[in-house]
Design goal:
single chain; 22 helices
Length: 856
């Protein structure tokens, strides 16, 4: 029996730590928080702001096991992460497991290495209540904001919506950027590029120092240049340096993993968590760039050994942010002798961290920058060629250079040929190209993290969940935007001749960037209009500062909550009572056929177009928007086109053919089968021939690829990846199979494994009643329709075994269901027959904003 029990949050971390501790230690995992606010109800006493924590249902068995382990141990070591969340986990464990101060110790380490863990055990401390209170303040404040603001959205916008403090501010950033893009007016100018030849016929690319606003000015310059002798007016060479960036924080790791590896924020944090738990890197939630002396020495030894002493330049970085949490270190490798690891995805992220840390301790790169001025006194402007040579690569040897998204791709520095002042150059070609200014870029995940950090909103632990939440709530989307086309003028001078041509260029397309959804915009506008302070960037940052003051012991958390709630709650009551409903309604114009108003707005089933008024005797008619359209920008002409859908075509193979648009986009309906129309194809352009082509493609895709026991097997790709279908069973195909070339043996293996799993799934099944007793991940359970119910214990307080459940009657199972849901088998009342509507008196029409939501 172990004298010491160590409790950490994750099983992977427990496994790694167990390797470093002897037989006197037993390491167990709490699997994160064992207690939290209840899932139903607010769970907070609003008079005292005391939270009502409870052990979640899926953790009760684990807590029982931990209590049993605690009884056997002499000392319990609480070893959760060293941030506020980790401190709160330790505090909940101590409270729930009834740990006495003399029988518990709190230890922290920012890396899972033998030295770090043994050092932590030598230097234990007690639970830091200030850090716990900072976590409680965040949890309680965010629960109150969400629970009180969300019902206002249900009442004033649309049922089922939700709001959150940091998430709502993140959505606001995306919405404001989109509005900025819509309002942006591109401005054209002419940029001139020249290619010149020296005596040795070597090319020198140069740009004119000034752009021209007007086409005639650009043409006039080219006309002048046509008869001008170009000379080298000046050659200037300047020494310069480039220095490495600081080691990674959470935010900079997320940004760099996005630009270099294409990883999204959630994936980056998942991989970083694994690297930390398996002992490869230091703690991955940090806003500090500090490195320990041990790390600086380790990097120096590695650099000197691998690259030479001249590459080593040890330096310390300090965190500029005054709100950086606790005394964390930057994210770095725990052992510089480990350069890569087995898992490919893990290794890519590890090597990024490894090289960035190493580079931060390396010498600056030395460069030589050359600027050549080309022109003639007769010309109003001169050309400039820039080039640079790396004299000493320094940190670039380890890390290289990456251009940021907003850097101009044309500004590539290059090596220039030797020229002398006064040397005559021939022009090979000079081109004036019409270029348009571009609006600010939409946010990528990494760019949004950077912006949140700049504004002081959120903390390292909140970036990934915030970005995931605003997508899950469907307030923002990362859909692809098709580019538009515009004409640009290009004027070229070559061989003494000027040639003008009009070309087409694509612009405005975007991929993998955040775009607000219609509902996201409407919710944002409602919240910013009615809760301006809560969504104010400065206010949100100030709240974060208050959490920091609580963490340092300079502020009491319940006093902070009292001050916040005394202003917040009256605003909730006022908005609930007095604010108008919001549906983003826009009057687009008048329907030329009926003379009725046409509106774009949010309806019960999402964004839509409406012809007519709610209170008209003749009910309005509706049309759904297509992908890429939104209520804020759709034009009247495009809205009218939507009412041409759905339309019927001729029957095909004795089944009806309809073209329409639904919640998943435009489709061809053939009989009862819905077939998506390919992306970018206009449903209104689909004729009989094209519809039959799409149906034929679907038939081919759905054709059996094999047979199993005489039954056909088909395949496809769904939201969970590739699958095969046998009878009515969908079977996921794991990556280890070659999906495009599945053999009969592969199919037999997949189907048999699924059938065996399905056979073991049901203990008893009553299909007519839609009731079954099933084996689940956590043991047997009852399924009734889509609802799941627990199986009660027997009279002797023991659990039913699977064999015993095979003998249980349907009536007994129904009693178990009724005990948990008394209305489960109650007959549903038939809706009352609608009374004929009384004829309305003619009244003045209400203002659009006041109209109740339409029903489809």
């Amino acid at each position: 029996m172990s004298k010491n029990l160590v409790i950490v949050e994750s099983p992977a971390k427990a496994k790694t730590i167990q390797k470093y501790l002897g037989k006197d230690f037993e390491v167990k995992s709490s699997f994160g928080h064992i207690r939290d606010l209840p899932k139903k109800g607010m769970g907070i006493d609003l008079a005292t702001f005391s939270p009502d924590y409870e052990v979640s249902a899926d953790k009760k068995k684990l807590v029982t096991e931990l209590k049993s382990a605690v009884k056997k141990a002499e000392m319990v070591w609480l070893a959760s992460d060293e941030d506020r969340e980790g401190e709160a986990i330790a505090w909940h464990l101590a409270d729930e497991l009834k740990l006495k101060p003399e029988n518990r110790k709190r230890i922290v380490f920012h890396e899972i290495t033998k030295n770090a863990i043994l050092k932590a055990i030598e230097n234990p401390r007690d639970i830091d209540q200030n850090l716990v209170n900072a976590q409680q303040a965040r949890r309680v404040l965010d629960r109150i904001v969400g629970f009180e603001m969300s019902p206002v959205l249900w009442k004033k916008v649309k049922p089922g919506l939700s709001a959150g403090r940091v998430q709502s501010v993140a959505v606001r950033l995306v919405v404001e950027r989109e509005k900025e893009i819509r309002q942006f007016t591109p401005k054209a100018s002419f940029k001139l590029d020249g290619v010149f030849l020296n005596r040795a016929d070597q090319e020198i690319g140069a740009k004119l120092k000034k752009d021209f606003d007007k086409e005639e000015d650009a043409e006039k310059f080219l006309e002048l240049a046509r008869t001008t002798e170009f000379k080298v007016l000046n050659v200037e060479t300047k020494p310069g340096t480039r220095s490495a960036s600081a080691p990674f924080t959470t935010s900079t790791l997320q940004q760099e993993a996005s630009s270099r590896l294409g990883y999204n924020v959630t994936n980056t944090m998942r991989l970083a968590q694994r690297l930390y738990e398996e002992g490869f890197i230091t703690y991955m939630r940090t806003d500090s760039v500090n490195l320990s002396q041990e790390a600086i020495d380790g990097a120096k030894n590695q650099i000197t050994t691998e690259y030479g002493a001249e590459y080593s330049a040890p330096r310390k970085y300090t965190t500029k942010s005054a709100s950086a949490q606790e005394a964390h270190e930057a994210i770095r490798p725990t052992d510089f002798s480990v350069k890569s690891i087995g898992d490919v995805q893990l290794s890519k992220l590890y090597q990024l961290i490894y090289r960035r840390t190493l580079a931060s301790q390396m010498a600056n790169a030395k460069i030589e920058k050359t600027v050549i001025e080309i022109g003639n006194a007769k010309l109003p402007q001169h050309f400039e060629a820039q080039g640079e040579v790396i004299i000493f690569d320094g940190f670039l040897k380890a890390y290289g250079i990456v251009k940021t998204e907003d850097e101009d791709e044309e500004n590539n520095e290059k090596l220039l040929p030797k020229v002398t002042v006064g040397e005559v150059l021939d022009y090979k070609k000079i081109t004036a190209t019409e270029k348009f200014t571009r609006p600010a870029a939409r946010f990528t995940e990494a760019m949004l993290v950077k912006k949140l950090e700049e504004l002081g909103i959120g903390r390292p632990s909140t970036y990934a969940p915030t970005i995931q939440t605003i997508q899950n709530r469907e307030y923002v989307d990362k859909k692809e935007l098709e580019p538009q086309t515009r004409e640009v003028v290009k004027i070229s001078l070559a061989k003494d001749k000027i040639k003008k041509e009009v070309l087409e260029e694509k612009f405005g397309g975007d991929k993998n960037k955040f775009i607000p959804t219609d509902i996201g915009e409407v919710v944002n506008d409602f919240l910013t209009n009615n809760f301006a302070e809560i969504l104010d960037y400065g206010f949100t940052a100030k709240v974060e500062e208050s959490f920091d003051h609580i963490a340092s012991g300079d502020q009491k958390w319940k006093e902070m909550m009292t001050d916040f709630y005394s202003k917040f709650h009256p605003r909730i009551e006022d908005v609930e009572e007095n604010a108008d409903r919001a549906n983003g309604e826009r009057l687009l114009g008048v329907d030329p056929k009926s003379g009725k108003n046409i509106y774009a707005r949010i309806g019960r089933f999402g964004p839509m177009i409406q012809i007519g008024e709610q209170d008209d005797e003749e009910k309005p008619i509706f049309a759904s928007l297509m992908a890429g359209q939104n209520i804020a920008t759709i034009a009247l002409e495009d809205a009218l086109e939507l009412f041409k859908l759905p339309f019927e075509l001729k029957d095909f193979e004795d089944q009806s053919v309809t073209i329409g648009v639904g919640r998943f986009g435009p489709y061809v309906k053939w009989g009862e089968t819905y077939i998506s129309i390919p992306k970018g194809e206009d449903p209104l352009s689909i004729d009989q021939n094209r519809a039959e082509e799409i149906i034929a493609e679907k038939k081919l895709a759905d054709a059996p690829i094999a047979n199993f026991k005489g039954e056909p097997i088909t395949k496809g790709t769904g939201r969970f990846g590739p699958f095969i279908k046998y009878q009515s069973i969908f079977i996921n195909v794991p990556k280890r199979y070659d999906f495009d070339n599945l053999s009969q043996s592969d199919i037999n293996e997949l189907v048999e494994a699924k059938l065996e799993k399905e056979a073991n799934r049901y203990i008893q099944q009553w299909e007519k009643e839609k009731i079954s007793l099933e084996n689940g991940r956590w043991g047997p359970f009852i399924k009734f329709g889509k609802a799941m119910f627990k199986i009660p214990k027997k009279k002797d307080d023991t659990k039913y075994e699977s064999d015993e459940l095979k003998e249980v009657s349907l009536d007994e199972v129904k009693k178990w269901i009724t005990a948990q849901d008394p209305k489960a088998f109650a007959e549903k009342k038939k809706p009352a027959a609608k009374k004929p509507a009384a004829k309305k008196a003619t009244t003045a029409k209400k203002a659009p904003a006041k109209k109740p939501a339409a029903k489809k």
